[in-house]
Specification:
By secondary structure, this protein is mainly alpha-helical. 45% of the residues lie in helices and 5% in strands. The N terminus is likely disordered.
Length: 646
């Protein structure tokens, strides 16, 4: 077991640091470094133990370690395994296997079978503008056979991927809405719930077993771009070919599929920096309107379909909850109000963003589509979208779109959102210049989601707990669990940070500016590993999405692609003024400070008398920002060392 990284440099030797970096791809070149040199990175980048643990281990008292508090270990692949995936990205392997299947089918076509299966995943929960569902329906119609929608509940996978109970609750609520809509089309939605001990790799075989039971000659689905999901689909294609089942996997999550944004200089390379990526991507979507064209909605089955699958509809129903991911009654009610389910709700959330003014009354446990929003559709410049250029940084009102849960679960597509935005824009054209208009700024935010998905597809290591920029593999992190716990609970002593974390815990969501502030505080002020924060967000948020969450955390931690430079460290006090100019956000989520105003609210410990501060019942800052900043600069400048403790 690795020694504590909180020990001094005399007992904690310098860890190996990649020293041969290609400036374009920032990939580590393979050399003759022994595997022993990388053992420290096997599974965990740090021990995440405090000094007491290291002392007990040194004294041979390992039996006492389990009783000591420590943060949850992040899931981190070995460097060797990550490099193997990078050398052979799973998406490429899937595409090769599909090409092999398609060539074989041209020579020996398969029968259509007695039914068609559309395997719905947890990030495409919609009927509108759904690529694979649309094609599966057309195939079923052309062969006069019923379409079956299948969903697989996978508790073990949810646990492995740190899915939050709130995300699973949102999933189940959306499935119930979809089942009602599909029933009107005579299309059965059948839910196969895996046992909690079912191997994660068993999904493809179970789906193919159901295909055999239902006489389905084909299985259709949309691709995801995370490593595990791509390897699942690779097994589905290879096993389907062996069993005579056609597998159709379609790109649907993004407006432009991974690899589709080519460098203007030619070649197969992709952009690792956002701005040139965005310039090409935005040119593509404005010059080629078909990229935003919706896929046709599914057509009805024959009226006999629901009767044919009647027994399965009874046996394969939507569970009321998933064991290990239950919400208590209070949280369930709050989530339903704050994040209403269904495609109609998603469309209304979008419409409110495009046509109504921001309001501070939306801070609490309220619906994003609650009554009372002022309609300014006749003067769009006053809408939340119209003021997005400056308003997006303000957490004290509903200045952002609130669409992230619907994007993450695929309840609405980026194509639909951009097409509707274009329809409501002057001349029906989509503004993309982020310097010239608020709409252009918002479109660029959607493009960040696309960019990070392109990154995880091209560089699988970021799905495996590895930094994009391998130079920072050796950054030395702190390991005291008390600081992590204070950050999680919103008791760090910095009001804007605490307000952000309390919003996270109460609402399963957080304003984007506050996500950056909270993440910067964890990684730069507390000097705790970004993977701990990434994981905590995933376990709390209803909009937990690997690409966006990982991309955001690595941006703040300065380890990612096109990141914030390590020497740019957020000051919690100045960020408070930017994110919460009225103070309403802090006062709502940190009620201990509700009687304060102005700078006293932003920095009560620094501005109030000791007696007045103590009377608040609010914690003192757990670190000094100025000292913490200097420590962070030292760690990033001297990778692999702890110069501040030498």
């Amino acid at each position: 077991m690795p020694s504590s990284s909180s020990a001094s440099t005399s007992t904690n030797p310098k860890r190996p640091v990649p020293d041969d970096i290609n400036p374009e791809t920032k990939r580590q070149k393979k050399d003759d470094q022994t595997q022993a040199d990388e053992d420290w990175f096997n599974g965990n980048i740090c021990a995440f133990f405090d000094g007491d643990v290291a002392e007990k281990l040194d004294e041979g008292r390992a039996d006492q370690v389990a009783s000591l508090p420590r943060p949850s270990d992040p899931r981190v692949s070995t460097v060797e395994n990550a490099d193997k995936k990078d050398a052979n990205p799973p998406l490429q392997l899937v595409e090769v296997e599909i090409e092999k299947q398609d060539k074989a089918l041209k020579q020996s076509p398969l029968e259509a079978g007695k039914s068609v299966i559309y395997w719905m995943r947890m990030n495409d929960l919609r009927l509108t503008d759904n690529h694979a569902l649309s094609l599966a329906s057309s195939f079923a119609q052309s062969n006069s056979i019923p379409l079956v929608v299948l969903f697989v509940v996978t508790p073990r996978e949810y646990k492995a991927h740190d899915r939050s109970p709130r995300r699973i609750d949102f999933l189940l609520r959306n499935l119930r809405t979809l089942q009602s809509s599909l029933s009107k089309l005579n299309i059965p939605l059948l839910v196969h719930s895996q046992p909690h001990d079912a191997p994660r790799k068993s999904q493809p075989m179970e789906v193919l077993k159901l295909a055999k039971k239902w006489g389905a000659g084909s299985v259709w689905s949309n691709l995801s771009y995370e490593v595990d999901e791509l390897e699942r689909d690779l097994r589905l294609v290879t096993e389907g070919s062996k069993q005579g089942v056609r597998v159709e996997l379609k790109h649907d999550r993004l407006v432009v599929k991974p690899g589709g944004v080519k460098k203007k200089t030619g070649g197969d390379g992709m952009y690792n920096v956002f701005t040139p990526f965005y310039n090409v991507w935005s040119d593509m979507i404005t010059s080629n309107p078909s990229l935003l064209a919706p896929y046709a909605s599914p057509k009805p089955n024959d009226v006999s379909a629901l009767k044919t699958f009647g027994d399965d509809l009874k046996a394969m129903s939507i569970p009321t909850s998933v064991k290990g991911f239950e919400l208590d009654e209070k949280d369930a009610k709050a989530m339903k109000k704050i994040h209403p389910e269904g495609e109609e709700a998603a469309v209304e959330v979008l419409n409110r963003f495009l046509t109504t003014k921001a309001r501070s009354s939306q801070l609490g446990t309220v619906s994003p589509i609650a009554d009372g929003a002022e309609d300014v559709s006749s003067s769009k410049k006053d809408s939340r979208l119209g003021t997005y250029g400056t308003g997006r940084d303000h957490a004290d009102k509903d200045t952002t779109s609130r669409l992230s849960p619907y994007f993450a679960s695929g309840v609405i597509s980026a194509r639909q959102v951009l097409a509707e935005t274009a329809r409501q824009s002057p001349g029906g054209k989509l503004p993309v210049d982020k310097k010239a208009s608020a709409t252009g700024t918002w479109v660029s935010e959607i493009a960040w989601r696309e960019f990070y998905n392109h990154i995880i597809a091209a560089y699988p290591r970021v799905s495996m707990g590895q930094p994009f920029n391998v130079k920072y593999r050796g950054v030395q992190w702190e390991t005291d669990p008390k600081y992590l716990q204070a950050w999680k609970e919103g008791k760090a002593g910095y009001p804007i940070v605490d307000a952000a974390m309390r919003q996270c815990n109460a609402q399963g969501w957080m304003h984007n500016r506050c996500r950056m502030i909270a993440a910067s505080f964890l990684t730069k002020d507390l000097m705790l590993d970004w993977r701990l924060g990434e994981r905590y967000f995933m376990t709390q948020f209803v909009d937990g999405d690997l690409a966006a969450n990982n991309g955001g955390w690595q941006w703040v931690a300065s380890t990612g692609t096109d990141p914030q430079p390590y020497f740019r460290i957020f000051n919690p006090l100045s960020q408070s003024e930017k994110a919460d100019p009225s103070g309403d956000y802090i006062r709502y989520f940190v009620p201990e400070l509700k009687g304060l105003k102005g700078k006293d609210l932003l920095d009560p410990h620094g501005r109030l008398s000791p007696a007045a501060f103590k009377a608040l019942g609010y914690p003192a800052p757990i670190v000094d920002h100025k000292k913490a900043r200097e420590r962070a600069l030292g760690r990033y400048k001297n990778i692999g060392e702890k110069p501040d403790e030498a």
